[in-house]
Specification:
The protein is mainly α. Helix content is 82%, strand content 0%. The protein contains nine helices and no strands. Helix 1 crosses helix 4, helix 1 runs parallel beside helix 5 and helix 7 packs across helix 8. The radius of gyration is 21 Å and the shape is elongated.
Length: 175
């Protein structure tokens, strides 16, 4: 009976832990969509395909092949998001991420990257946010986060580029 009870407790705790991890990941994904990170990297993928099309122009790769290759974009963006979640996990609590999402849901948060659109009230809200515990974590971890994001960007984009080159090679196209 004790073993059964222990097993039930273990499963319940494990399930709750997994749910919290999943919720954390979803909240980080919401955050990086709101702050423009994902839009930026969607542009990176688009630029990579433009560059590949230029590099392979002499090979006359059919448009259908490019359309097929570009289908990796959603999966690649999901992989990137998971990598970024790991970086956030090293720096921020779930409550920090929730606080960031709350900020991004405000007019001030939506305009924070467009200084010309910020009202005086927006500036006050942002100043107060950056004086909060979460805001201070963002400021103090900026160098470390930038280094992590740089590493993630290099690894992710390099792997994606190599994968596309390999797929083109499998189809008989070479630079």
């Amino acid at each position: 009976m004790k073993k059964f009870f222990t097993l039930i407790c273990f499963l319940a705790i494990g399930t709750l832990s997994f749910a919290q991890v999943d919720e954390y990941s979803e909240d980080v994904k919401k955050c990086i969509k709101s702050n423009g990170t994902m839009t930026y990297y969607e542009g990176v993928i688009d630029q990579m395909f433009t560059m590949l099309e230029e590099q392979f122009a002499s090979q006359e790769v059919p448009a259908e092949v490019w359309r097929e290759l570009k289908k990796v974009k959603p999966e690649s963006m999901d992989e990137l998001a998971q990598m970024i979640v790991s970086a956030y996990r090293a720096h921020f609590t779930h409550q920090d991420v929730k606080n960031m999402n709350a900020l991004y849901a405000t007019k001030a948060g939506q305009n924070m990257f467009k200084p010309e659109a910020l009202s005086e009230g927006d500036k006050i809200i942002l100043k107060e946010f950056y004086q909060s515990e979460t805001g201070q974590k963002i400021v103090s971890s900026q160098d470390s986060m930038n280094a992590s994001m740089s590493d993630i960007s290099i690894m992710w984009s390099g792997d994606l580029y190599k994968s596309m080159i390999a797929k083109l090679s499998e189809k008989g196209y070479t630079i």
